[in-house]
Amino acid sequence: MSPTDLEARPKQKAEREEGTRPGAYFTPLVDIYETPEELVLVADMPGVSREDVEVHLDGDTLTVEGRANADEYEGLKPVYVEYGVGGFYRRFTLGETIDRAGIKALVKNGVLTLHLPKAERARARRIEVEAA
Amino acid sequence: MAISYRDPFAQLQRELESMLERAFGTEGPSSLYPPVNLFDAGEHYVVKAELPGVRPEDLELTVQDNTLVLRGERTLPETAQNAAYHRRERGEGQFRRVVRLPGPTEGEPQAQFRDGVLTVRLPKASQARPRRVTIHSD
């Protein structure tokens, strides 16, 4: 028997503007890390296919959205439920200037990975100290 | 745009929400990983589990009588050197989850892993299946 060291975190409903798209939206769990060259955002979006992901960068506001696939649930009657089903939505304010043309998005196994390269002038420069 | 009450998926979403609320209140469900949903599809039971980022080869399923066991591991790919984290919400590690089905099953279960969601279809044993009853009239 293997130990269980993963804990489920109950899905939280996403707050978003009323009247946009119908249906339930949840807040995806994310990791965000930064390297000297880029910001990387990794978001868990189970049940969302590649073609149902939308990423918008408006000024310094980054929005990620994934729509749920309803087809999988046709003819199913719920008996026991531990999680809600729906899309994902979350908004971030970026503190870095991003090179928009270089943004890359990848979706695999229900995980969105977003590479946001820093604009040239925003990159930290290493300054060599010359010996006198 | 008004929410259409004829949309079967929207209806299912609301049904799931209200079942969640009735079962767990505002506390939310247990922290057992992965969370599972169980459905009745007439001739089958359908178990779904959200396992984003788990590779299919790291997932193992066993079925015995009316018990389904899911076990596996979620590993997060190593990040680049010199990475500084701003947020770290996604967990990694091993898991093992036992799911009891409402009735006996027989025959080959079918499992599919798509977009980070595992779907297992388990044929109900004949005594658990719905049977059509012929109604006679005089």
Produce the secondary structure layout.
The complex is a heterodimer of chains A (132) and B (138).
Chain A: E1 25-26, E2 30-34, E3 38-44, E4 53-58, E5 61-66, E6 77-80, E7 87-93, E8 104-108, E9 111-117
Chain B: H1 8-24, E1 36-40, E2 44-50, E3 59-64, E4 67-74, E5 84-88, E6 93-100, E7 110-114, E8 117-123
Antiparallel strand pairs in B: 1-2, 2-8, 3-4, 4-6, 7-8
What is the CATH architecture descriptor of the domain at 34-76 and 93-129 in chain B? Sandwich
Q: Report Rg of chain A.
A: 19 Å
String of helices and strands of chain A: EEEEEEEEE
Q: Would you tell me the structural class of the helices and strands of chain B?
A: mainly beta
Low-confidence stretches of chain B: none
Q: Which bin fits the share of residues in helices of chain B?
A: 10-25%
Number of β-strand runs of chain B: 8
Question: So what's the oligomer here?
Answer: heterodimer
Overall pLDDT confidence of chain A: 86
Total DSSP E strands of chain A: 9
| Proportion in β-strands of chain B | 35-45%
Radius of gyration of chain B: 19 Å
- The CATH class designation of the domain at 34-76 and 93-129 in chain B is Mainly Beta
- Shape field of chain B: globular
Mean pLDDT of chain B: 87
Task: Name the chain pair whose interface involves the most residues.
Answer: A-B, 55 and 70 residues
- Class derived from helix and strand content of chain A: mainly beta
User: How much beta of chain A, percentage-wise?
Assistant: 35-45%
Series of secondary-structure elements of chain B, N-terminal to C-terminal: HEEEEEEEE
Largest sheet geometry of chain B: 4 strands, antiparallel
Would you summarize the structure shown here?
The complex is a heterodimer of chains A (132) and B (138). Chain A is mostly beta strands.
Describe the 3D structure.
The complex is a heterodimer of chains A (132) and B (138). With 132 residues, chain A is mainly β. Chain A has strands at residues 25-26, 30-34, 38-44, 53-58, 61-66, 77-80, 87-93, 104-108, 111-117. The radius of gyration of chain A is 19 Å and the shape is elongated. The N and C termini of chain A lie far apart (64 Å). With 138 residues, chain B is mostly beta strands. Chain B has a domain at 34-76 and 93-129: Immunoglobulin-like (Sandwich), CATH 2.60.40. Chain B contains one helix and eight strands; from the N terminus they run H-E-E-E-E-E-E-E-E. In chain B, the strands form two sheets. Chain B has a four-stranded antiparallel beta sheet with strand order 1-2-8-7, with no helix packed on it. In chain B, strands 3-4-6 form a three-stranded antiparallel beta sheet, with no helix packed on it. The longest helix of chain B is centred in the first third of the chain and has 17 residues, at 8-24. Chain B is globular and about 85 Å long. Chains A and B meet through strand 2, strand 3 and strand 6 of A and helix 1, strand 1, strand 2, strand 5 and strand 6 of B. Strand 2 (30-34) of chain A pairs antiparallel with strand 5 (84-88) of chain B, so a sheet runs across the interface.
